[in-house]
Design goal:
By secondary structure, this protein is an alpha+beta fold. The protein folds into three domains: 188 residues, ATPase, nucleotide binding domain (Nucleotidyltransferase, domain 5), CATH 3.30.420.40; 146 residues, ATPase, nucleotide binding domain (Nucleotidyltransferase, domain 5, 2-Layer Sandwich); 198 residues, Carbamoyltransferase, C-terminal domain (DHBP synthase, Alpha-Beta Complex). The protein has 19 helices and 23 strands. Strands 15-23-22-16-17-21-18-20-19 form a nine-stranded mixed sheet, with helices on both faces. A six-stranded mixed sheet has the order 1-10-9-8-13-14, sandwiched between helices.
């Protein structure tokens, strides 16, 4: 197994360029301080990810996740990549900690190794890379090479700062909070330092990454290249390609196979003559466009059958590669459990096939599987692998963000002079279920905000899945987004198998399965191929949302709700009552439920404005 796109063994040695460079063993190193074990006092570890996309922070106390959040939720800049100072402040406030009480701060990748890769790639592709090089260097010179200095300045922190390699952070984010004592590990994304995919094994506190695929050969970047070609935003809208795929036929698989040579073990080599991401500011080149017979789609232009077929084709090839990787990994390890991380692990269609079509018996993917999850990963890696503290946390829910008590919510509503009613919890469940059953769209703002890109019943917009028009209503009048975009069903875990062809909980909305033929009375959440991206809800995870689902089932015979994220296109999921109120006012949502307080859109004067059907003052 040789070559830059084949799975390369992990070893040590001198860097020899991207084609032959071994993976430097991904142990963290401390900046300015040695590792220390604190056996008696509480251990507080802060993990940070930033400066690429989806900046985030996560705080562990004695291995327990105290708080975790994306920076975008506070700044309201979607996929915010800047230093996550707001997310960090929230984590410290939630833990009631001062900065000086932190024992370690961890960063989710190794900037100098990444910088080495970038310099090598620009040198290898010079002079074509000159423009991209000149655009990238100022940010590296100002920020990315000086992470310890930035952390100390931003936080006024003087303790140890540790770094883990990017894919080790991914691996740790999946394995160390999984329910498994041992598991096979598969990480797949665009690129970290050099690695674009790794596989290995986790046992107890230890992680051994055995092989990797190296840049520029990348399944994540291949998928992003097609995201760009189809007119969507890279590192943001890959899920749109996945959502568009069921509407097309995989007519272009053979052409994609001209771009990438796939081996039986799932490793691959890409023909870089068709791509320009390794040297330029675009993902695809002229040869790519000639192969498919069309230029890239202009954003916002009509989506033609051709685009749907291209989406179906790249989705099929992606699933083919992931399945081969997983089967090979099972053959190598013989383990029954698999954990996955990296941006490609958010491809819930591929995940569903992994658990159905490979020998693995169990699969765990934590909800922030992309770069944001690196903040969790590096913190867990420091806590458990480097310091050797026992694993105590199994991530079985995603509610690690801010919450707002009833007094705070009511004070805000009074401040904006909103008209509202206050319902007891039993009334809230009964009346909200009835409102949804009557065809109303409800904004649902409850408890702690979700960790990860999916709304899971805390910051959600809810609707009736039985109404075939509800999908268009939500897409066009509420979310202001493309009509093909699917919606997810939320269903109580105890009746999950009655409605969907799935034999395991899926609390993070990361598995796709078929709707049972005798239950296809939920067209608003049933995709073109009769599949659905499912969220199962248990009473323990989210008792209020669980009760609402059961009450809706009691009223209608269908214990399923549409659950989509509480935001409009181009904005992050809402975080605060103010965010929720603004989103409610600016859309055609019918009701807003904030904690115990219910707002009726009919109580607000209907106005028009440039921002949408309704405008704020």
């Amino acid at each position: 197994m040789h070559g830059p796109g084949r799975l390369a063994r992990v070893d040590s040695g001198r860097p020899r360029g991207p084609a032959a460079r071994p993976l430097l063993l991904p142990t963290a190193f401390a900046c300015g301080h040695g590792l220390r074990r604190l056996e008696s006092a509480s251990m507080n570890v802060l993990g940070i990810s930033c400066y690429y996309h989806d900046a985030a922070a996560c705080l562990l106390r004695d291995g327990e996740i105290v708080a975790a959040a994306h920076e975008e939720r506070f700044t309201r800049t979607k996929h915010d990549s800047e230093f996550p100072i707001h997310a960090i402040r929230y984590c410290l406030e939630q833990a009631k900690l001062e900065v000086g009480e932190l024992d370690y701060v961890g960063f989710y990748d190794k900037p100098f190794l990444k910088f080495e890769r970038i310099l090598v790639q620009y040198l290898a592709t010079f002079p074509r890379s000159f423009r991209s090089f000149m655009q990238a260097m100022p940010l590296w010179m100002r920020h990315k090479l000086w992470i310890p200095k930035l952390i100390r300045e931003q936080l006024e922190y003087q303790g140890p700062i540790l770094f883990a390699e990017h894919h080790m952070s991914h691996a740790a984010s999946a394995f160390l909070v999984s329910p498994f004592e041992q598991a096979a590990i598969l990480t797949i994304d665009g690129v970290g330092e050099w690695a674009t995919a790794t596989y290995g094994v986790g046992r107890g506190n230890e992680i051994n990454l055995m092989k990797e695929i190296r840049f520029p050969h990348s399944l994540g970047l291949l998928y992003s290249a097609f995201t760009y070609y189809l007119g969507f935003k890279v590192n943001s809208a890959e899920y749109k390609v996945m959502g568009l795929a069921p509407y097309g036929e995989p007519r272009y698989v053979d052409r994609i196979h001209q771009l990438i040579r796939i081996h039986d073990d799932g490793s691959f080599q890409m023909d870089m003559r068709y791509f320009s991401y390794d040297w330029g500011l675009r993902m695809t080149g002229r040869r790519f466009h000639q192969l498919f017979g069309a230029a890239p789609r202009d954003p916002e232009s009509t989506i033609e059958p051709f685009h749907k077929d291209v989406a179906a084709s790249i989705q099929k090839v992606t699933e083919e590669i992931v399945l081969k990787m997983a089967r090979h990994l099972h053959a190598v390890t013989g383990l029954p459990n698999l954990v996955m991380a990296g941006g490609v692990a958010l491809n819930c269609v591929a995940n569903g096939r992994v658990i159905r079509e490979t020998p693995f018996q169990e699969l765990f993917v934590q909800p922030a599987a992309g770069d944001a999850g690196g903040a969790l990963g590096v913190a867990a890696y420091i806590q458990h692998t480097l310091l050797g503290h026992p694993r105590t946390t199994v991530m079985d829910h995603a509610y690690y963000g801010p919450a707002f008590d009833p007094e705070h919510c009511e004070q805000f509503l009074q401040r904006v002079e909103a008209k509202y009613t206050r319902w007891s919890e039993p009334e809230l469940i009964q009346r909200t279920a009835k409102l949804i059953a009557e065809g109303n769209v409800v904004g649902w703002f409850q408890g702690r905000m979700e960790w990860g890109p999916r709304a899971l019943g805390s910051r959600s917009i809810l609707g009736d899945p039985r109404d075939p028009k509800m999908r268009d209503t939500l897409n066009l009048k509420i979310k202001f987004r493309e009509s093909f975009r699917p919606f997810a069903p939320a269903v109580p875990e105890d009746v999950l198998a009655d409605w969907f062809e799935i034999d395991r909980p899926t609390p993070f909305m990361l598995l796709v399965a078929q709707v049972r033929p005798d239950k296809r009375v939920i067209p608003a959440v049933t995709h073109a191929d009769n599949s659905a991206r499912i969220q199962s809800v248990s009473q323990r995870q989210n008792p209020l949302f669980y009760a609402l689902l059961h009450e809706f089932g009691r009223l209608t015979g269908v214990p399923v709700l549409i659950n989509t994220s509480f935001n409009v296109r181009g904005e992050p999921i809402v975080c605060t009552p103010e965010d929720a109120y603004n989103c409610f006012r600016n859309t055609d949502m019918d009701y807003l439920v904030i904690d115990q307080f219910v707002l009726d859109k009919r109580d607000f004067p209907k106005r028009t404005g440039p921002g949408g059907p309704l405008a704020l003052d």
